[in-house]
Amino acid sequence: MNVMGVMPVNSLILTMSIPMMLSMLVQALYNIVDSIFVAQINESALSAVSLAFPVQALIIGVAVGTGVGINALLSKSLGERDFEKANKSAVNGLFIAWASSVVFLAAGVLFTDVYFYTQTDIKIIADYGRDYLSIICIFSFTVFSQITLERLLSSTGKTFYAMLSQITGAVVNIALDPIFIFGLFGVPRMEVKGAAIATIIGECCSVAVAVIFNLKINKEINISFKGFRPDAKIIKSIYAVGFPSLLMQCVGSFMIYGMNRILIKFTPTANAVLGVFFRLQSFIFMPVFGMNSAIIPIVAFNYGARHKNRIIKTIKLSVTYAAIIMLIGLAAFQLIPQKMLALFNATPEMIRIGVPAFRIVSTIYIFAGFCIVCISVLQAMGNAVHGLLVVSARQLLVLLPAAWLLSLTGELDAVWLSFPVAEIVSLALSIFFIRRLFTVKLKNL
Protein backbone atom coordinates (compact mmCIF):
# COMPACT_ATOMS: atom_id res chain seq x y z
CA MET A 1 0.00 0.00 0.00
CA ASN A 2 1.32 3.48 -0.88
CA VAL A 3 2.63 5.33 2.20
CA MET A 4 0.94 8.57 1.06
CA GLY A 5 -2.43 7.10 1.95
CA VAL A 6 -1.62 5.46 5.29
CA MET A 7 1.41 7.02 7.05
CA PRO A 8 0.59 9.61 9.77
CA VAL A 9 0.43 12.97 8.01
CA ASN A 10 3.07 14.79 10.05
CA SER A 11 5.54 11.92 9.68
CA LEU A 12 4.73 11.69 5.97
CA ILE A 13 5.34 15.40 5.39
CA LEU A 14 8.63 15.31 7.27
CA THR A 15 9.76 12.05 5.67
CA MET A 16 9.07 13.35 2.16
CA SER A 17 9.92 17.01 2.74
CA ILE A 18 13.22 16.91 4.61
CA PRO A 19 15.20 15.24 1.79
CA MET A 20 13.66 17.65 -0.74
CA MET A 21 14.33 20.64 1.54
CA LEU A 22 17.94 19.59 2.01
CA SER A 23 18.44 19.08 -1.70
CA MET A 24 16.87 22.47 -2.42
CA LEU A 25 19.16 24.06 0.18
CA VAL A 26 22.15 22.56 -1.59
CA GLN A 27 20.73 23.82 -4.91
CA ALA A 28 20.42 27.31 -3.44
CA LEU A 29 23.90 27.06 -1.95
CA TYR A 30 25.57 26.36 -5.26
CA ASN A 31 23.67 29.23 -6.92
CA ILE A 32 25.03 31.46 -4.17
CA VAL A 33 28.55 30.03 -4.48
CA ASP A 34 28.41 30.61 -8.27
CA SER A 35 27.71 34.29 -7.68
CA ILE A 36 30.30 34.61 -4.91
CA PHE A 37 33.01 33.32 -7.26
CA VAL A 38 31.77 35.44 -10.18
CA ALA A 39 31.77 38.53 -7.94
CA GLN A 40 35.52 38.02 -7.41
CA ILE A 41 36.05 38.77 -11.13
CA ASN A 42 34.45 42.22 -10.95
CA GLU A 43 31.06 43.88 -10.43
CA SER A 44 30.37 43.88 -14.19
CA ALA A 45 30.56 40.08 -14.23
CA LEU A 46 28.13 39.92 -11.28
CA SER A 47 25.77 42.36 -13.04
CA ALA A 48 25.93 40.26 -16.22
CA VAL A 49 25.00 37.06 -14.38
CA SER A 50 22.20 38.97 -12.64
CA LEU A 51 20.84 40.14 -15.99
CA ALA A 52 21.07 36.56 -17.28
CA PHE A 53 19.14 35.25 -14.29
CA PRO A 54 15.61 35.75 -15.77
CA VAL A 55 16.37 33.42 -18.69
CA GLN A 56 18.10 30.89 -16.44
CA ALA A 57 15.07 31.03 -14.13
CA LEU A 58 12.78 30.66 -17.16
CA ILE A 59 14.53 27.43 -18.18
CA ILE A 60 14.19 26.04 -14.67
CA GLY A 61 10.61 27.33 -14.49
CA VAL A 62 9.54 25.52 -17.65
CA ALA A 63 11.19 22.34 -16.41
CA VAL A 64 9.64 22.63 -12.93
CA GLY A 65 6.21 23.54 -14.31
CA THR A 66 6.26 20.50 -16.58
CA GLY A 67 7.46 18.43 -13.63
CA VAL A 68 4.55 19.62 -11.48
CA GLY A 69 2.11 18.36 -14.10
CA ILE A 70 3.91 15.01 -14.31
CA ASN A 71 4.09 14.80 -10.53
CA ALA A 72 0.39 15.50 -9.95
CA LEU A 73 -0.87 13.24 -12.75
CA LEU A 74 1.44 10.36 -11.84
CA SER A 75 0.61 10.56 -8.10
CA LYS A 76 -3.12 10.82 -8.79
CA SER A 77 -2.91 7.80 -11.14
CA LEU A 78 -1.13 5.78 -8.46
CA GLY A 79 -3.78 6.84 -5.92
CA GLU A 80 -6.41 5.50 -8.32
CA ARG A 81 -4.25 2.39 -8.92
CA ASP A 82 -4.09 3.11 -12.65
CA PHE A 83 -0.51 1.91 -13.17
CA GLU A 84 -0.61 2.00 -16.97
CA LYS A 85 -1.51 5.68 -16.92
CA ALA A 86 1.25 6.33 -14.38
CA ASN A 87 3.85 4.73 -16.69
CA LYS A 88 2.58 6.71 -19.68
CA SER A 89 2.76 9.90 -17.61
CA ALA A 90 6.43 9.24 -16.88
CA VAL A 91 7.62 8.58 -20.45
CA ASN A 92 5.48 11.31 -22.02
CA GLY A 93 6.73 13.72 -19.38
CA LEU A 94 10.34 13.00 -20.29
CA PHE A 95 9.51 13.43 -23.98
CA ILE A 96 7.95 16.89 -23.58
CA ALA A 97 10.76 17.99 -21.25
CA TRP A 98 13.38 17.14 -23.87
CA ALA A 99 11.30 18.77 -26.61
CA SER A 100 11.15 21.97 -24.53
CA SER A 101 14.94 22.10 -24.25
CA VAL A 102 15.25 22.39 -28.04
CA VAL A 103 13.56 25.81 -27.90
CA PHE A 104 16.17 27.11 -25.46
CA LEU A 105 18.98 25.63 -27.52
CA ALA A 106 17.81 27.72 -30.48
CA ALA A 107 17.49 30.81 -28.28
CA GLY A 108 21.02 30.31 -26.96
CA VAL A 109 22.42 30.21 -30.48
CA LEU A 110 20.40 33.09 -31.96
CA PHE A 111 19.25 35.60 -29.36
CA THR A 112 21.63 36.05 -26.41
CA ASP A 113 23.21 39.26 -27.79
CA VAL A 114 19.79 40.76 -28.52
CA TYR A 115 18.58 39.85 -25.04
CA PHE A 116 21.41 41.65 -23.24
CA TYR A 117 21.35 44.76 -25.39
CA THR A 118 17.65 45.25 -24.57
CA GLN A 119 18.81 45.80 -20.97
CA THR A 120 22.19 47.52 -21.20
CA ASP A 121 24.50 49.24 -23.66
CA ILE A 122 27.57 48.52 -21.52
CA LYS A 123 29.65 46.21 -23.71
CA ILE A 124 31.60 44.42 -20.99
CA ILE A 125 28.37 43.43 -19.19
CA ALA A 126 26.77 42.24 -22.45
CA ASP A 127 29.89 40.24 -23.38
CA TYR A 128 30.08 38.55 -19.99
CA GLY A 129 26.36 37.84 -20.15
CA ARG A 130 26.53 36.29 -23.63
CA ASP A 131 29.44 34.05 -22.61
CA TYR A 132 27.46 32.73 -19.63
CA LEU A 133 23.92 32.50 -20.97
CA SER A 134 24.65 30.93 -24.37
CA ILE A 135 26.18 27.88 -22.66
CA ILE A 136 23.30 27.59 -20.19
CA CYS A 137 20.72 27.71 -23.00
CA ILE A 138 22.45 25.44 -25.51
CA PHE A 139 22.89 22.68 -22.91
CA SER A 140 19.52 23.19 -21.18
CA PHE A 141 18.55 19.56 -21.86
CA THR A 142 20.67 18.68 -18.81
CA VAL A 143 18.52 20.65 -16.35
CA PHE A 144 15.30 19.48 -18.05
CA SER A 145 16.42 15.86 -17.67
CA GLN A 146 17.54 16.35 -14.08
CA ILE A 147 14.34 18.02 -12.84
CA THR A 148 12.00 15.62 -14.63
CA LEU A 149 13.81 12.49 -13.42
CA GLU A 150 13.85 13.83 -9.86
CA ARG A 151 10.11 14.55 -10.07
CA LEU A 152 9.50 10.93 -11.06
CA LEU A 153 11.25 9.86 -7.87
CA SER A 154 9.34 12.31 -5.67
CA SER A 155 6.04 11.31 -7.29
CA THR A 156 6.36 7.85 -5.73
CA GLY A 157 7.59 9.11 -2.36
CA LYS A 158 11.31 8.52 -3.01
CA THR A 159 12.41 12.04 -2.18
CA PHE A 160 15.57 10.79 -0.47
CA TYR A 161 16.89 9.53 -3.81
CA ALA A 162 15.86 12.76 -5.53
CA MET A 163 17.89 14.56 -2.86
CA LEU A 164 20.95 12.40 -3.54
CA SER A 165 20.71 13.17 -7.25
CA GLN A 166 20.53 16.90 -6.67
CA ILE A 167 23.28 16.93 -4.05
CA THR A 168 25.59 15.07 -6.42
CA GLY A 169 25.23 17.78 -9.06
CA ALA A 170 25.60 20.58 -6.53
CA VAL A 171 28.79 19.19 -5.02
CA VAL A 172 30.33 18.71 -8.48
CA ASN A 173 29.35 22.25 -9.49
CA ILE A 174 30.76 23.84 -6.34
CA ALA A 175 34.02 21.89 -6.70
CA LEU A 176 34.48 22.84 -10.36
CA ASP A 177 33.53 26.54 -10.05
CA PRO A 178 36.87 27.93 -8.82
CA ILE A 179 38.81 25.57 -11.09
CA PHE A 180 37.06 26.70 -14.28
CA ILE A 181 36.46 30.35 -13.34
CA PHE A 182 39.99 31.16 -12.16
CA GLY A 183 41.99 28.52 -14.06
CA LEU A 184 43.39 26.23 -11.38
CA PHE A 185 45.34 22.96 -11.74
CA GLY A 186 46.33 23.72 -15.32
CA VAL A 187 42.78 24.46 -16.51
CA PRO A 188 42.51 27.68 -18.60
CA ARG A 189 40.95 30.70 -16.84
CA MET A 190 37.40 30.95 -18.28
CA GLU A 191 35.73 33.45 -15.91
CA VAL A 192 31.92 33.47 -16.39
CA LYS A 193 32.14 30.77 -19.07
CA GLY A 194 33.71 28.56 -16.43
CA ALA A 195 30.77 29.10 -14.07
CA ALA A 196 28.35 28.02 -16.83
CA ILE A 197 30.40 24.94 -17.77
CA ALA A 198 30.63 23.88 -14.11
CA THR A 199 26.84 24.14 -13.85
CA ILE A 200 26.28 21.95 -16.92
CA ILE A 201 28.73 19.28 -15.77
CA GLY A 202 27.08 19.22 -12.34
CA GLU A 203 23.66 18.74 -13.93
CA CYS A 204 25.00 15.88 -16.09
CA CYS A 205 26.17 14.11 -12.94
CA SER A 206 22.73 14.59 -11.35
CA VAL A 207 21.08 13.10 -14.44
CA ALA A 208 23.30 10.03 -14.33
CA VAL A 209 22.44 9.39 -10.67
CA ALA A 210 18.70 10.00 -11.22
CA VAL A 211 18.60 7.59 -14.18
CA ILE A 212 20.13 4.83 -12.07
CA PHE A 213 17.68 5.40 -9.21
CA ASN A 214 14.65 5.46 -11.50
CA LEU A 215 15.64 2.25 -13.27
CA LYS A 216 16.84 0.31 -10.23
CA ILE A 217 14.77 1.57 -7.29
CA ASN A 218 11.62 3.30 -8.54
CA LYS A 219 9.60 0.09 -9.00
CA GLU A 220 6.15 1.76 -8.90
CA ILE A 221 6.65 2.99 -12.45
CA ASN A 222 8.21 1.39 -15.50
CA ILE A 223 10.17 3.80 -17.71
CA SER A 224 10.48 2.29 -21.16
CA PHE A 225 10.55 3.97 -24.57
CA LYS A 226 10.17 0.73 -26.48
CA GLY A 227 7.49 1.37 -29.12
CA PHE A 228 6.93 4.84 -27.67
CA ARG A 229 4.62 7.30 -29.39
CA PRO A 230 3.57 10.62 -27.85
CA ASP A 231 0.15 10.30 -26.24
CA ALA A 232 -1.78 13.51 -26.85
CA LYS A 233 -4.30 12.75 -24.10
CA ILE A 234 -1.59 12.18 -21.49
CA ILE A 235 0.34 15.28 -22.59
CA LYS A 236 -2.85 17.32 -22.39
CA SER A 237 -3.48 16.00 -18.86
CA ILE A 238 0.08 16.87 -17.82
CA TYR A 239 -0.27 20.42 -19.09
CA ALA A 240 -3.77 20.80 -17.62
CA VAL A 241 -1.99 20.98 -14.26
CA GLY A 242 1.54 21.75 -15.35
CA PHE A 243 0.96 24.58 -17.83
CA PRO A 244 -0.49 27.01 -15.27
CA SER A 245 2.41 26.08 -12.98
CA LEU A 246 4.80 26.56 -15.90
CA LEU A 247 3.31 30.00 -16.51
CA MET A 248 3.65 30.77 -12.80
CA GLN A 249 7.35 30.02 -13.00
CA CYS A 250 7.69 32.06 -16.19
CA VAL A 251 5.93 35.03 -14.62
CA GLY A 252 8.79 35.25 -12.13
CA SER A 253 11.31 35.43 -14.96
CA PHE A 254 9.43 38.22 -16.70
CA MET A 255 9.14 40.04 -13.38
CA ILE A 256 12.92 39.94 -12.82
CA TYR A 257 13.53 41.05 -16.41
CA GLY A 258 11.14 43.97 -15.94
CA MET A 259 12.71 44.93 -12.60
CA ASN A 260 16.16 44.83 -14.20
CA ARG A 261 14.96 47.23 -16.91
CA ILE A 262 13.62 49.61 -14.24
CA LEU A 263 16.63 49.39 -11.91
CA ILE A 264 19.37 49.78 -14.52
CA LYS A 265 18.08 53.30 -15.21
CA PHE A 266 19.38 54.18 -11.76
CA THR A 267 22.67 52.22 -11.81
CA PRO A 268 23.93 48.74 -12.82
CA THR A 269 24.83 48.28 -9.15
CA ALA A 270 21.10 48.06 -8.40
CA ASN A 271 20.89 45.09 -10.79
CA ALA A 272 23.75 43.43 -8.97
CA VAL A 273 21.93 43.98 -5.67
CA LEU A 274 18.72 42.46 -7.05
CA GLY A 275 20.63 39.45 -8.38
CA VAL A 276 22.37 38.92 -5.04
CA PHE A 277 19.07 39.31 -3.19
CA PHE A 278 17.31 36.65 -5.26
CA ARG A 279 20.18 34.23 -4.80
CA LEU A 280 20.28 34.76 -1.05
CA GLN A 281 16.49 34.66 -0.91
CA SER A 282 16.58 31.26 -2.61
CA PHE A 283 18.29 29.90 0.50
CA ILE A 284 15.06 30.72 2.38
CA PHE A 285 12.52 29.97 -0.33
CA MET A 286 14.07 26.76 -1.65
CA PRO A 287 13.30 24.74 1.51
CA VAL A 288 9.67 25.90 1.27
CA PHE A 289 9.59 24.93 -2.41
CA GLY A 290 11.17 21.60 -1.45
CA MET A 291 8.40 21.01 1.06
CA ASN A 292 5.83 21.94 -1.56
CA SER A 293 7.37 19.45 -3.99
CA ALA A 294 6.56 16.84 -1.36
CA ILE A 295 3.07 18.04 -0.41
CA ILE A 296 1.83 18.24 -4.02
CA PRO A 297 1.90 14.44 -4.49
CA ILE A 298 0.56 13.95 -0.94
CA VAL A 299 -2.44 16.18 -1.60
CA ALA A 300 -2.93 14.82 -5.14
CA PHE A 301 -2.79 11.19 -3.96
CA ASN A 302 -5.25 11.75 -1.10
CA TYR A 303 -7.53 13.77 -3.34
CA GLY A 304 -7.61 10.84 -5.76
CA ALA A 305 -8.19 8.48 -2.80
CA ARG A 306 -10.86 10.86 -1.30
CA HIS A 307 -9.11 11.23 2.07
CA LYS A 308 -10.42 14.67 3.09
CA ASN A 309 -9.00 14.79 6.61
CA ARG A 310 -5.51 13.93 5.43
CA ILE A 311 -5.63 16.77 2.90
CA ILE A 312 -6.72 19.32 5.53
CA LYS A 313 -4.06 18.20 8.00
CA THR A 314 -1.40 18.36 5.28
CA ILE A 315 -2.36 21.96 4.50
CA LYS A 316 -2.32 23.09 8.15
CA LEU A 317 1.04 21.50 8.94
CA SER A 318 2.62 22.78 5.73
CA VAL A 319 1.55 26.37 6.44
CA THR A 320 3.02 26.08 9.95
CA TYR A 321 6.37 24.78 8.74
CA ALA A 322 6.52 27.36 5.92
CA ALA A 323 5.83 30.19 8.37
CA ILE A 324 8.69 29.07 10.64
CA ILE A 325 11.14 28.96 7.74
CA MET A 326 10.10 32.38 6.44
CA LEU A 327 10.43 33.99 9.88
CA ILE A 328 14.02 32.75 10.09
CA GLY A 329 14.67 34.35 6.70
CA LEU A 330 13.03 37.59 7.77
CA ALA A 331 15.28 37.80 10.83
CA ALA A 332 18.42 37.24 8.75
CA PHE A 333 17.64 39.89 6.12
CA GLN A 334 16.61 42.43 8.76
CA LEU A 335 19.53 41.92 11.15
CA ILE A 336 22.61 41.12 9.04
CA PRO A 337 22.13 42.50 5.49
CA GLN A 338 25.59 44.09 5.38
CA LYS A 339 27.31 40.80 6.26
CA MET A 340 25.27 38.99 3.62
CA LEU A 341 26.32 41.51 0.95
CA ALA A 342 29.95 41.26 2.03
CA LEU A 343 29.97 37.64 0.83
CA PHE A 344 29.76 39.00 -2.74
CA ASN A 345 32.75 41.37 -2.56
CA ALA A 346 30.29 44.27 -2.25
CA THR A 347 31.54 47.78 -2.90
CA PRO A 348 30.49 50.63 -0.55
CA GLU A 349 27.94 51.69 -3.20
CA MET A 350 26.51 48.18 -3.37
CA ILE A 351 26.17 48.09 0.42
CA ARG A 352 24.54 51.55 0.46
CA ILE A 353 21.90 50.40 -2.04
CA GLY A 354 21.59 46.83 -0.79
CA VAL A 355 20.99 47.23 2.96
CA PRO A 356 17.69 49.16 2.69
CA ALA A 357 16.65 47.01 -0.29
CA PHE A 358 17.13 43.78 1.69
CA ARG A 359 15.18 45.12 4.66
CA ILE A 360 12.26 46.46 2.61
CA VAL A 361 11.81 43.48 0.27
CA SER A 362 12.14 40.85 3.02
CA THR A 363 9.09 42.22 4.85
CA ILE A 364 7.00 40.13 2.41
CA TYR A 365 8.23 36.99 4.18
CA ILE A 366 5.55 37.49 6.83
CA PHE A 367 2.92 36.36 4.29
CA ALA A 368 4.90 34.61 1.56
CA GLY A 369 5.03 31.14 3.15
CA PHE A 370 1.24 30.95 3.42
CA CYS A 371 0.78 32.08 -0.18
CA ILE A 372 3.29 29.55 -1.53
CA VAL A 373 1.57 26.65 0.23
CA CYS A 374 -1.84 27.80 -1.01
CA ILE A 375 -0.60 27.91 -4.60
CA SER A 376 0.76 24.36 -4.33
CA VAL A 377 -2.51 23.04 -2.88
CA LEU A 378 -4.45 24.69 -5.71
CA GLN A 379 -2.12 23.00 -8.22
CA ALA A 380 -2.42 19.58 -6.60
CA MET A 381 -6.23 19.68 -6.63
CA GLY A 382 -6.61 20.79 -10.23
CA ASN A 383 -7.07 24.52 -9.60
CA ALA A 384 -3.69 25.58 -10.95
CA VAL A 385 -5.29 28.45 -12.88
CA HIS A 386 -6.20 30.09 -9.58
CA GLY A 387 -2.58 29.73 -8.46
CA LEU A 388 -1.51 31.36 -11.70
CA LEU A 389 -3.82 34.29 -11.02
CA VAL A 390 -2.25 34.78 -7.59
CA VAL A 391 1.29 34.76 -8.99
CA SER A 392 0.42 36.95 -11.99
CA ALA A 393 -1.29 39.56 -9.84
CA ARG A 394 1.68 39.73 -7.52
CA GLN A 395 4.56 39.72 -9.98
CA LEU A 396 3.19 41.31 -13.14
CA LEU A 397 -0.15 43.04 -12.66
CA VAL A 398 0.83 44.73 -9.39
CA LEU A 399 4.59 44.55 -8.80
CA LEU A 400 5.93 45.90 -12.10
CA PRO A 401 3.41 48.75 -12.49
CA ALA A 402 4.00 49.72 -8.86
CA ALA A 403 7.78 49.59 -9.33
CA TRP A 404 7.56 51.73 -12.47
CA LEU A 405 5.33 54.31 -10.80
CA LEU A 406 7.57 54.47 -7.73
CA SER A 407 10.65 54.84 -9.96
CA LEU A 408 9.18 58.11 -11.23
CA THR A 409 9.92 59.60 -7.81
CA GLY A 410 13.63 59.37 -8.67
CA GLU A 411 14.27 57.54 -5.40
CA LEU A 412 15.70 54.04 -5.75
CA ASP A 413 14.62 53.04 -2.24
CA ALA A 414 11.00 53.75 -3.20
CA VAL A 415 11.13 51.12 -5.96
CA TRP A 416 11.70 48.34 -3.42
CA LEU A 417 8.35 49.18 -1.76
CA SER A 418 6.58 47.62 -4.74
CA PHE A 419 7.38 44.14 -3.32
CA PRO A 420 5.36 44.49 -0.07
CA VAL A 421 2.52 46.16 -1.96
CA ALA A 422 2.29 43.23 -4.37
CA GLU A 423 2.48 40.63 -1.58
CA ILE A 424 -0.56 42.10 0.19
CA VAL A 425 -2.58 41.61 -3.01
CA SER A 426 -1.24 38.05 -3.29
CA LEU A 427 -2.29 37.31 0.29
CA ALA A 428 -5.84 38.52 -0.31
CA LEU A 429 -6.22 36.41 -3.46
CA SER A 430 -4.69 33.33 -1.77
CA ILE A 431 -7.19 33.53 1.08
CA PHE A 432 -10.09 33.95 -1.36
CA PHE A 433 -9.14 30.98 -3.57
CA ILE A 434 -8.26 28.59 -0.73
CA ARG A 435 -11.59 29.31 0.98
CA ARG A 436 -13.36 28.68 -2.31
CA LEU A 437 -11.47 25.40 -2.69
CA PHE A 438 -12.67 24.25 0.73
CA THR A 439 -16.26 25.19 -0.09
CA VAL A 440 -16.42 23.69 -3.59
CA LYS A 441 -14.14 20.64 -3.52
CA LEU A 442 -13.29 19.59 0.02
CA LYS A 443 -16.65 20.08 1.71
CA ASN A 444 -18.31 17.20 -0.13
CA LEU A 445 -15.27 14.96 -0.55
SSE order and pairing:
Elements: H1 9-39, H2 43-79, H3 83-110, H4 112-117, H5 123-138, H6 141-155, H7 159-182, H8 192-216, H9 232-263, H10 268-304, H11 308-335, H12 337-342, H13 348-361, H14 365-380, H15 384-407, H16 412-415, H17 418-442
Structure description:
The chain is mostly helical and 445 residues long. It is 83% helix and 0% strand. It has one domain. The chain has helices at residues 9-39, 43-79, 83-110, 112-117, 123-138, 141-155, 159-182, 192-216, 232-263, 268-304, 308-335, 337-342, 348-361, 365-380, 384-407, 412-415, 418-442. The model has no long low-confidence stretch (mean pLDDT 87).
Unreliable parts: none
> Largest beta sheet, briefly?
none
Q: What coarse outline follows from CA principal-axis ratios?
A: globular
Q: Helix amount, in percent? A: over 70%
Mean pLDDT: 87
List keywords for this structure.
445 residues; mainly alpha; 17 helices; 83% helix
Nutshell version of this structure?
This protein is mainly alpha-helical. The protein has one domain.
